[in-house]
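FIELD: query
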Amino acid sequence: WALWAFGPRLERVWAPGRFAAFFLWCVAGGAIAHALFAEGSGLLVGASAGVFGVLVAYAWRWPQQEAAFFGIVPMRMRTLVALLIAVNVLLGALSTGSPGGGTAYLAHLGGVLAAALWLLWPAGT
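FIELD: result
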């Protein structure tokens, strides 16, 4: 849902090729973070790190834009993304060392870090 809601606006601003490169960059950042910090936790499947990257980029570009948390609580994008990052840090810390769990919280954070690196790079914004 987040990719569908926030991705098209970024894609229009950046152009499809650049948006796809950004998304794949964030997915790769998630895979690297998972490999480094969640060893032995099993196979990594999905692109949620890329979705987290899109959320970060959207909040970076339009921090005052409002979105509804869980479709109910309105908040600014920067607040929403900060809350999602904080939850992933907490759940990632709690899940470290425990096998399985089903959610790659540290991969999400890798996508966040990859997005920040892209956006801080002089040609990124």
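FIELD: remark
The mean pLDDT is 87.
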